[in-house]
Design goal:
single chain; alpha/beta; 8-stranded parallel barrel; 9 helices; 8 strands; disordered N terminus
Length: 416
């Protein structure tokens, strides 16, 4: 081998070694960079930056709206908007017939607003099936005894204003006209502190301080009148069966004047059986009667025609009085329990007789025939805010789910 060849081979080997070293270094650098990049990515993924976002900030609201929208979107295929039945023949003018029923609203009959909603929706939808166009919302008030001078709302029994508003709006949504009807509950009047029956009732109260009684009573009624005005309630009752207080004409006139300053709808007073001449009817829009009369018929074998005939003297009396006063007449309570012979004394809650659906049904049919052409409205008495589970076993006044319900539908089929 020549010296020249030896030098050439040596240079070539050196170059090869240098190339190998270079390639090895480049591969090492590349591997290192990949590892660092992976570590950076993992650290970035795992690291969380906490930021305090105010509850009502645009960010939190936006995120909430997205969540609600996504949830709503996921339910579109399975959820439908609730719909409610509507009144078949709603009233269209102030003088239209009031085809009504009373609803008793006690706060202890529901747990909360959601419970009230669930119950009242079922009742109102049911009532639209019976040609009813008006409901009276009956709100209990209290005093501690028949001689008490203070009227008050009992937080355990008197519904809150917002609950009353909910009922009104639910009813109006279906096309019902509304009568708001505060009444004096007899819980503390008819029974003393020992629970003994006293034979007193709202029609026999004698407040020790009459002025204070009217003052406390007026304060509550004005509050309800404001509510009624705000909710466009059609009718407002200033009193119910306060027979012993009817003689205070001037006090009633002052109360009506104060209410007129707040409420622009029609006002009335519900008298018990007879139309009291002392009540300032000239200042009210129509006369109301709670029509619980003794009907002189047989409890055992009375017929529909017998009941119609037994109504005639009572109808003649109240119709003549209403005509002389020059005001329309509305029956604000009419009904009887589902007990044998109940139609003779329909105001009695318990006749101590057997359940008799036919007695109640016959009273409804006969009373409609006897009264309807003489009055401007009838409110059947009454239902609570829930539907009866077993109406065929219920002996009370509530007509829903009983044969009497069909008589309501027939009675109100035409209201012109």
């Amino acid at each position: 081998m020549s010296r020249k060849e030896t030098i050439t081979r040596g240079v070539t080997s050196i170059i090869s070694i240098l190339l190998l070293i270079g390639i090895t270094y480049v591969l090492w650098i590349a591997k290192t960079n990949v590892a660092e990049t992976k570590d950076i990515k993992e650290a970035t993924t795992q690291e969380t930056v906490e930021v305090d976002v105010p509850e009502n900030s645009p960010i939190s609201i936006f995120e909430t709206e997205i969540g609600v929208e996504e949830e709503a979107s996921s339910k579109k295929s399975t959820t439908t908007t609730p719909s409610h039945t509507r009144v078949a023949n709603p009233r269209n003018s102030p003088n239209d017939f009031q085809a009504g029923i009373g609803i008793l609203v006690y706060k202890n009959d529901y747990e909360d607003l959601e419970s009230l909603k669930w119950k009242i929706d079922k009742i109102l939808d049911k009532l639209t099936e019976n040609n009813i166009n008006s409901i009276s919302i009956n709100i209990p008030l209290y005093q501690d005894s028949y001689a008490s001078s203070t009227v008050y709302k009992d937080e355990n029994f008197t519904p809150k204003n917002e609950e009353i508003v909910f009922i009104i709006r639910s009813a109006k949504m279906r096309g019902f006209s509304i009568m708001l009807r505060p009444f004096l509950d007899e819980q503390n009047i008819s029974y003393n502190s020992s629970g003994r029956y006293t034979s007193e009732w709202r029609g026999t109260i004698e407040p020790k301080d009459k002025e204070k009684w009217f003052e406390t009573y007026a304060k509550i009624l004005i509050d309800y009148a404001k509510l009624a005005e705000n909710e466009e309630v059609e009718f407002f009752t200033i009193g119910t069966e306060l027979t012993s207080m009817e003689k205070y004409t001037e006090d009633w006139e002052n109360l009506i004047k104060d209410l007129r300053g707040t409420y622009s709808g029609q006002m009335t007073y519900s008298a018990n059986r007879l139309i009291p001449p002392e009540m300032p009817w000239h200042a009210l829009d129509f006369i109301s009667i709670d029509a619980f009369y003794f009907l002189d018929v047989s409890a055992e074998n009375a017929t529909e025609e017998d009941i119609i005939n037994a109504w005639k003297p009572w109808i003649q009396d109240i119709a003549t009085q209403a005509e002389s006063i020059g005001k329309p007449l509305v029956i604000t309570e009419l009904g009887t329990s589902a007990q044998k012979g109940s139609f003779r004394s329909s105001w009695i809650w318990d006749h101590n007789t057997s359940i008799d659906m036919e007695a109640q049904r016959m009273f409804y049919k006969a009373s409609c025939k006897a009264l309807k052409e003489h009055v401007s409205g009838i409110y059947w008495w009454a239902t609570n805010i829930w539907l009866l589970e077993n109406p065929e076993q219920d002996e009370g006044f509530n007509p829903l789910g009983k044969p009497a319900e069909r008589e309501i539908e027939a009675c109100f089929e035409t209201t012109s």
